[in-house]
């Protein structure tokens, strides 16, 4: 299929695609099943496992072996159509977030602190982009201060904790897949 699944690191390409689509729908299922916890009062906390997956793919240099922008565009397109019914924020925002992660990788060291800083900045870029896209589309997302306090900050905190927990398992998975 378009040369994406054959040749060098073929298993890495297949497994990356399968996990990408699993996480795409798992994010939504997690949010739907934990809505009572994640949407208390005015707070709207969004788990972003797919975003963490893409950032780690860039940070562990899988973009050298994979068409990462293709997968980011496709995952963003499916995310937008499936969850919002409109092509928009994630279709463009996810590839931009991947690009930002890739650029930051060159400027920051390979330390764990730098990796988490890249995750924080990447999620921030995606959240800002989707907020602006929602404003342009005329969706009622409230003012910027409320968005930061009630959606952005809690979502960022949750996803940084998830990224810290998943750091070692994902690093080991990517190392094993690159060896195959």
TrEMBL record:
Coiled coil: none annotated. Its main location: membrane. It is a multi-pass membrane protein. InterPro entries: Cell_shape_determining_MreD. The chain crosses the membrane at residues 12-31, 43-62, 68-100, 112-139, 151-170. Keywords: Cell membrane, Cell shape, Membrane, Transmembrane, Transmembrane helix. It is found in: Cell membrane. Belongs to the MreD family. This is Rod shape-determining protein MreD. It comes from Periweissella ghanensis.
């Amino acid at each position: 299929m378009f040369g994406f699944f054959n040749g060098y690191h073929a298993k890495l390409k297949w497994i990356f695609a399968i996990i990408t689509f699993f996480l795409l729908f798992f994010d939504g299922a997690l949010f739907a099943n934990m809505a009572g916890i994640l949407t208390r009062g005015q707070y709207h906390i969004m788990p972003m496992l797919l975003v963490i997956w893409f950032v780690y793919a860039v940070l562990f240099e899988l973009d050298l072996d994979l068409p990462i922008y293709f997968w980011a565009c496709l995952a963003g397109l499916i995310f937008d159509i499936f969850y919002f019914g409109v092509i928009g924020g994630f279709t463009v925002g996810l590839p931009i977030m991947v690009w930002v992660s890739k650029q930051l990788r060159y400027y920051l060291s390979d330390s764990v602190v730098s990796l988490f800083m890249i995750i924080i900045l990447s999620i921030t870029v995606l959240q800002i982009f989707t907020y602006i896209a929602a404003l342009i589309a005329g969706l009622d997302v409230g003012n910027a201060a409320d968005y930061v306090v009630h959606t952005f900050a809690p979502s960022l905190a949750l996803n940084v904790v998830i990224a810290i927990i998943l750091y070692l398992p994902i690093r080991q998975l990517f190392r094993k897949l690159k060896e195959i």
